Amino acid sequence: MGSGKILVAQGGGPTAVINQSLVGVALEARRFRDVTRVYGALHGVRGIVDEEFVDLTRETSHNLELVAATPSSALGSTRDKPDDKYCAEIFNVLRAHEIEHFFYIGGNDSSDTVRIVSEQARAAGYPLRAIHIPKTIDNDLVGSDHTPGFPSAARFVAQAFAGANLDNAALPGVYVGVVMGRHAGFLTAAAALGKKFPDDGPHLVYLPERTFSIEAFLADVKAIHERHGRCVVAVSEGIHDASGKPIATLLAREVEKDAHGNVQLSGTGALADLLCDEIKAKLGIKRVRGDTFGYLQRSFIGCVSDVDQREAREVGEKAVQYAFWGDRDGSVAIRRTGFYSADYALLPLSDVAGKTRTMEDEFIAPSGTDVTDAFRLYLRPLLGSGMPDAFRLRCARVAKILKP
Amino acid sequence: MGSGKILVAQGGGPTAVINQSLVGVALEARRFRDVTRVYGALHGVRGIVDEEFVDLTRETSHNLELVAATPSSALGSTRDKPDDKYCAEIFNVLRAHEIEHFFYIGGNDSSDTVRIVSEQARAAGYPLRAIHIPKTIDNDLVGSDHTPGFPSAARFVAQAFAGANLDNAALPGVYVGVVMGRHAGFLTAAAALGKKFPDDGPHLVYLPERTFSIEAFLADVKAIHERHGRCVVAVSEGIHDASGKPIATLLAREVEKDAHGNVQLSGTGALADLLCDEIKAKLGIKRVRGDTFGYLQRSFIGCVSDVDQREAREVGEKAVQYAFWGDRDGSVAIRRTGFYSADYALLPLSDVAGKTRTMEDEFIAPSGTDVTDAFRLYLRPLLGSGMPDAFRLRCARVAKILKP
Predict the structure, then answer these.
(1) Residues A143, A154: one domain?
(2) Residues B128 and B226 occupy one common structural domain
(3) In what order do the strands lie in the sheet with A129-134?
(4) Which of B18, B53, B150, B332 could, after both became Cys, cross-link B139 (CB 3.0–4.6 A)?
(5) What is the reported pLDDT for B264?
(6) Domain named Phosphofructokinase: which ranges (chains A, B) (predicted)?
(7) Mean pLDDT across the stretch A61-77?
(8) How many Cβ pairs closer than 8 A exist between chain A and B?
(9) pLDDT, tens digit, for every residue of B8-33?
(10) Co-location of A110 and A219 in the same domain
(11) Distance of residue B44 Cα from the nearest chain A Cα, in angstroms
């Protein structure tokens, strides 16, 4: 063991439980006698190259617990994706500070960052142990049953659709809710868990795993509206046509891309408005409302899965254990071992980095606009305890007198 | 006392606690020996003219309690506003069913409906006791300290901004959240209760009580962004220019109006997108995101103020007591009697109907883009118990080595 200094950082989009993983690292690391300092880099890899570190060892464990329960990245995040030059800068800083253990909490892109840093360190002969700690509301990491952050976001989406369904039942019409998820439909599919009675919405769920056609969409909405007098629709922001072109880009608005080349889909209500305008124009339905859940679904304070909280904490703790008791770099993965129980494994970084999991076929109904019971069984335990429930009146109709 | 039949209905936009009032009426009414039947009209006044009644007396009290805790109007709602002809139809139905007590749970427009029905009944010599039970997330009824439904929606907005602020701190930029509220800014102002530390957002709050100017808005955002490196903005959907024209209608999109002549403002992300586009174009800030809270804020299941729940229940109970032990029609109002305690009063319908309360000047900071401590003191107890709290790291910076 060298200096005993470890570094932890958070990358990518924040989640409701990402600080559980941070605090899991910080508190578990201090149980190892070789650890002298736990540094946190501000705003991910950007904070490493800028030497923007805080000393988490100087935090009280009490405040760390309070921060753990607070959503969004307490250290700040970044969308930077290091290339070779960027990584060379990272090594210079790690060397200068004698840091030999690096923990990066993030999703797809962050796991790729860890892989590059790990490979560059090996090539440079620098003794770095680099561990990727999973986090993404998209649930799109391969090798994991699910990813920390997804269950809480899924809980928000399920609760939002449970409420939107009740609202739509009171004032009938068409309601379109647009949910985050570029390539993977898991979060959009979570809308189905907001449904209780057979005639409840969401009646239609559109996932990026299936090709989206405006014509088929309008026919589906028309059929549901004729049957129920109303229609609640869950749509992924990532829906695309047969050529793979996002439906959101069918609009005239300019397209914004991030450092990873991803088209910006969130933070605008354009897709919901486009779909609502189509329904009004082509189906002649008057009351059509669209909501884009946007950033609420990943950072809402006070809608968190307790299962998600404890697992996010554990992946942080396990990462430290793998780093100090193991002999290789890797990515921490969640495995399902019971209904419901989880355990953890360390996967090779190359098995996870840059790969995207999408919804398995067994989770998507043959219609393409609903989920299966397999998906409901998969997701329900992750949503945690205390899920609010919806009840309805079931009393008898009174006989009409004037117009019987 | 006549037939002993009473009728209750729900009008206008649903809230998270509107069924508490419904169940308050249903259960309290059965304690009066003269009451033989408690009917509920489906979809408000529309259900009365269509004779669409259910017999709430045939509900179990257990299920009524479960429905009370479920958001959105369990009987269904309507946007219909009865005129003279409509009211004549209502009387025919009430007469035919020998209903002599009418309770209507709703907001501004619903209180006006009760006033019309009450006056028409008196003119027609029909012995009707009509009581308006307050409900609106807009908090815009005159004569009440606040209205049931507002505290729970305010809690959602405060929690949403607390989370959005954390998200924006992690990935800095400009965030614009658009909140419901056509004429009254109370719900938008609730965003300020999501703020904890002095540099937290929302940094700017735009209310319909003040004239909105795009130029002043851009200057405000620029100043905050330069000071904090980020900016979180709360905007009411009802913001308007000096002529009173809604900013939302500056867009090319066609304008939809309801039966009350109100321009449709919710259910579209257009206003947020307009403001974000202006910020990107005029200020050159790259990361600009807009969310429109839409229907989530009034029907989200699982984000309810316990204070709101109990008051919504009590206005329903008090309405029945006023009806049977009082001698006049009226509108139930909430009065604040302590910090915090509430009591109830019955106001003349003409004091409430068709009038709109807006935010008092003492609640709005002189800058016009913030609330006062008087507003914070006003709102905080209404949000109820168990409000989630946000914590941050406060540990020491590590000295730089390479670039000290």
Answers:
(1) no
(2) no
(3) A53-55, A37-41, A5-10, A99-106, A129-134, A330-338, A341-347
(4) B150
(5) 65
(6) 5-322
(7) 97
(8) 276
(9) 999 999 999 999 999 999 999 999 99
(10) no
(11) 10
User: Quick one: B250 and B317 in the same domain?
Assistant: no
> Nearest CA to CA, how far is B68 from chain A (Å)?
9
Residue-level pLDDT at A198? 96
List of chain B residues whose C-beta atoms are within 8 Å of the C-beta of residue A170: 10, 14, 43, 72-73, 76-77
Per residue in A52-67, pLDDT (tens digit) is 999 999 999 999 999 9
CATH number at residue B82: 3.40.50.450
Please indicate, yes or no, if residue A274 is contained in any of the structural domains.
yes
Nearest residue in chain B measured CA to CA from A175: B267
B78/A140 Cα distance (integer angstroms): 42
Supply the range of the domain harboring residue A183.
150-302+360-383
The CATH number for B208's domain is 3.40.50.460
Q: What are the tens digits of pLDDT across the range B272-301?
A: 989 999 999 999 999 999 999 999 999 899
Same domain (yes/no): B168, B105: no
Whether A261 is in a domain gets the answer yes
Structure confidence by residue, pLDDT tens digits, B51-92: 999 999 999 999 999 999 999 999 999 998 888 788 889 888
Domains of chain B: total: 2
Q: Does residue A318 sit within a domain?
A: yes
To the nearest whole angstrom, how far is the Cα of B245 from the nearest Cα of chain A?
22
Which amino acids of A are annotated as binding site for Mg(2+), given as ranges?
A: 108
Q: Of the listed B80, B112, B138, B220, which one is catalytic?
A: B138
Whether the CA torsion A226, B17, A387, B63 is positive or negative: it is negative
Contacts of A13 in chain B (CB under 8 A): 171
User: Would you say residue B391 lies in a domain?
Assistant: no
Q: Is B389 a catalytic residue?
A: no
